[in-house]
Amino acid sequence: RVTSIADRLNVEFALIHKERKKANEVDRMVLVGDVTDRVAILVDDMADTCGTICHAADKLVSAGATKVYAILTHGIFSGPALSRINNASFEAVVVTNTIPQEEKMKHCPKIQFVDISMILAEAIRRTHNGESVSYLFSHVPL
């Protein structure tokens, strides 16, 4: 996933390899690549308690990143998540609105959301009409 994103943006990339003992518990995290004097963007599918992304942000800052952002598909933000994000070194944590975020944004100003209702509606319409959904990967409706 990271290679595809980096290629489309024509940028270099680093990645964080994580090993889990069990759900919501990272055993080990290794940064692969150089982030010195760079803006780092963490990309993940979802964040629940945010222990992993906050740990990753700390690792990026300690490795020399000048700013850290997170882009997540689903922001669940349960338990200590908001407190962790508020105390972490993120400039912003950007999520989609697949889960309502208005109340959580009141308690965590670093959270921002992107409205994806139009692309979901178009995907549903295309599925219903037997049209290509993969077309949306390169032609996002606004």
Question: Approximately what portion of the residues adopt beta-strand conformation?
Answer: 25-35%
Global morphology: globular
Low-pLDDT stretches: none
Mind telling me which CATH architecture this is? 3-Layer(aba) Sandwich
CATH class: Alpha Beta
Structural class: alpha/beta
Largest sheet descriptor: 4 strands, parallel
The largest beta-sheet arranges its strands as: 3-4-5-6
Helix content: 25-40%
Radius of gyration of CA atoms, rounded to a whole number: 17 Å
What is the CATH topology?
A: Rossmann fold
Q: What's the helix count?
A: 5
Give the SSE order as H and E letters: HEEEHEHEHEH
In angstroms, what separates the terminal alpha carbons?
23 Å
Number of domains: 1
Protein traits:
142 residues, alpha/beta, Rossmann fold, four-stranded parallel beta sheet, two-stranded antiparallel ribbon, kinase
